[in-house]
Amino acid sequence: MPEKNIVLLGATGSIGKNTLKVARKHPGRIRIAAIAANSRYEPLAAIAHEFHVPHVALYDRAAAALARASGLFPPGTHFHEGPEGLVELAELDGTNLVVMAIVGTLGLVPALAAIRARKTLALASKEILVLAGKFVMAESVRLDVPIVPMDSEHNAIFQCLHAEPSRHVERLILTASGGQFRDASIEEMRRATPAQALCHPNWDMGPKVTIDSSTMANKGLELIEARWLFDIPQERIDIVVHPQSIIHSMVRFVDGSVLAQLCPPLMTFPIQHCIFYPDRDMGTAPTLDFSQTLRLDIRPPDTTRFPCLRLAREASAVAGIAPAVFNAANEVAVDAFVKEQIPFFGIPTLIERTLRAITPCEPQSLDDLLAADSEARAIARELLPLAVA
Ligand code: MG
User: 20 C-alpha to center of ligand 1: Å?
Assistant: First the structure.
């Protein structure tokens, strides 16, 4: 029996594909027990055949009906559907690791279900901690279920922190590629199109995170994510621009020593680390080649061209529902930018207007946060015309 029986939620996206690359490399140690996607059942069927996956879920019920009737899946496939289908997979008997790679906050309820079912949670969906970090981390601590971060920066910090007590840690230093507009002028950024924002220089990722990278809202979300994962306030988390994306993040200790984790900018590295942690195994892709000259530049970020960094820090400092509002407004803004309803700088404008329109309060429950999330989305949609100018 392979030792890692994995539930892969978000199998057809970028993280899902990279998880399957790792599984292909280590067939004796990894079994894919269940896969889920939103609506794209054809690629899901191909995965089910290649990896002999018995359980399949589709979030979209219409797609689930088509999938059942399609005849594309292996005989005897167990089908699950809707939000409860994701929860059923997260709790599936005989599995020990849930890879959460669903974009956005749809994965929140299944992530909590996985923790409550005592499954190690390999977390790639940063929005889950941005929205509900307080509650998710509290459950993980209460039930003593580990959350291993798959986001490359957080995975780097997780590796650097290995076995260090928190009193040794002075600061976390998140590295950012700077995205596609790292060296663009403010004028060029004003005229930026969705097609330009969707071309990342270093990383091959899904569309939402690629746009977030172009505004650096992604690093803002990661700042909030790090605050919860490592229980450290935002003022002790720095962000630096590192164009080569080789150093994935760093930790500065109280004695001034700085540890960094380095590898090529490929998601198979953090994904494989999460799957085998605390063990390690042969890498899935070739690593850095130090026989060649390797340049590593680091510089401070420009918050004038990237106001999302300032807004994320403000939201993290205010805490309460503010990070959820930041995240919700950003999702509405990115969607509107991709549909060419607002310009590039309409994204931070909409986030700022939405944050100002909502009275921050301390959520008492997950329901309070989900309500704040819906309210923020509704307000952001109402405020869209103000982000056009
Ligand atoms: Mg990242």
Answer: 19
